[in-house]
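Input/output pair, single chain:
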Amino acid sequence: MRAPIVRDLPVREGGRFDRFALDAAADTVRQRLHNSGYPRADAVNHFTVSDSTLSAWDTLEATPGPRTRIGAIKINVTPLTGKTQQIPTRIVRRIMALDSGQLFREDEIIDAQRALYQTEAYQHVSITPDSAADTLMTLYTNLAEAPMHAARVGAGYGTLDCFRVTGEYTDYNFLSGARRLDLTSRVSKIGIGRPLDGAPGLCPAARKDVFSTRLNYYAGATLRQPVFLGLRTVPTITIYTQRVSEYNAYLRTTAIGGVASVIWRGLTRTPVNLTYSMDLGRTEAQPALFCAVFNLCEEAERERIQRTQQLAVLSLAVTRDNSNNLLSPTRGSIIRLEARHSSPIILSNKDLQFNKFVGDASRYINAGGGNVLAFRIRGGTVFGRNVATAAGFIPPQERLYAGGPTTVRGYSQNELGSLIYISKSYEKFLSTDSAGIADTVVLAKPADSGTYKRVVPVGGNSLIVGNVELRLRSPFLPELLQFTLFTDAGEVWNKGTPQVSGVKLKVTPGIQVTAFSPVGPVRVAIGYNPYQRPKGPLYYEGTEFGGAPLLCVSPNNDLPTHFSAPDPVTNVVTVTQATKACPATYQPPVDNRFRSKLTFSFAIGQAF
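Output:
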């Protein structure tokens, strides 16, 4: 019994005399006894000091008291005025997971109280042991019920979401078992997405996103069981339908999907979440992404990948949160780890196989005077059936992206790493192949060679991002404003391709102003980016031709291109181009103006 109580105490023979360490050792022993069946245990220090020998002797005296078990568990429930008790007492006992006769452990009493609070069906919870010095201890549980139904509506605006609305309805006692049922709906891209696209001028950032032309939405029902396989396990089941987009990267439409998850809270402040999801949906991405990254240049090949398919994902996520504030921590740390897997073994389509690992660690240090020094490092990798297939097809929504107000602020959203460029126009040139046979190639018009219509973020299968922030308390309106000096560094690349040999971290410093509001910290950041845009393939979207082909118009490309005669009925011209890789020979010209090196971003919530 003695060994586990005194194990790894913060004092040792020969160590430095420290009153705080002695008090911490006494507290540790006292707490361990309280969790071992001795609720009345106490521990005190008695020490003497010798000035002549510069030595001290300490005696830690522990008085455990009688070994105690739980006796009766008495439950008193106060319902709302005018209501009867809503949750039966037997359900309360099951949520508490305490039984008469089991050994008294203080941490289990705290867990029972927390479990009752987490149902959100009670506005007051207290579990009080009696004070009688006996080997059986009676527990008095006093509960005050809260309203069992709640409805919420909200509206907001985001730079990439444009206008958005949400609606939620919650039943905290579904089927009288303290089960929680949430009905949730969200609609975003209002103002720019069809059919509610009447105010595109109010959404300047979203207008640059090719996937913002349709409304994003979510409608789902989530059922959470308060107890499953013991007190510390909370299962959840969700059924949903949604359409969600990532800026210039992809559009994911799910006709119907389901998620089953179990949260295990056996470790303090470290929930472990095991999730299995399956949905029937399709992911759309820009044709240039499929062609340049996965060599899927034919429309038929792209249609095969973008058709509605069954996607199943098994994931495991662990979060260790020791920070002192959810929205804007000033001390502590947060560590997040996640692993995701998809394959036919778990009933996913054979074309949608991947393994993904992502980790994130943040540290917050109180620098005094209301100032905070914050660090964050994030890394990830994703590959196909095995590590050897790193360069194989990965669903666009599972690729790794960086750039924007929460990662590397010197880059626009998702634009760190390789890029593909879309040309405004093209021009025909007569060329000859290696055999001297005449053919036609297409290139961007010389007048347009310095500009492009838009960029296509490629993302990657590997990512590393690091951030350092010095968050300074404002000398005026200190409760409202915060100034931040930051330096972000990172890179996104495709492991298994020639690009990996040229991976170099991009470092972008900047400044940020944060205003604390009822919805959270609102930030405006300015990042300085000294780098030229990378080389990449240049394409022209031939929407005026039959089949809307994607034509490579990169400088110095020699891909033979054939233009048919106009169709006698429709007058449509068909264009075919050799299906070789489009060379990454286009690079936008350098712009040395200081303003062109600044990237402005706006966001709600701290960067990390």
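The two ends are 44 Å apart (CA to CA). The longest strand covers residues 250-264.
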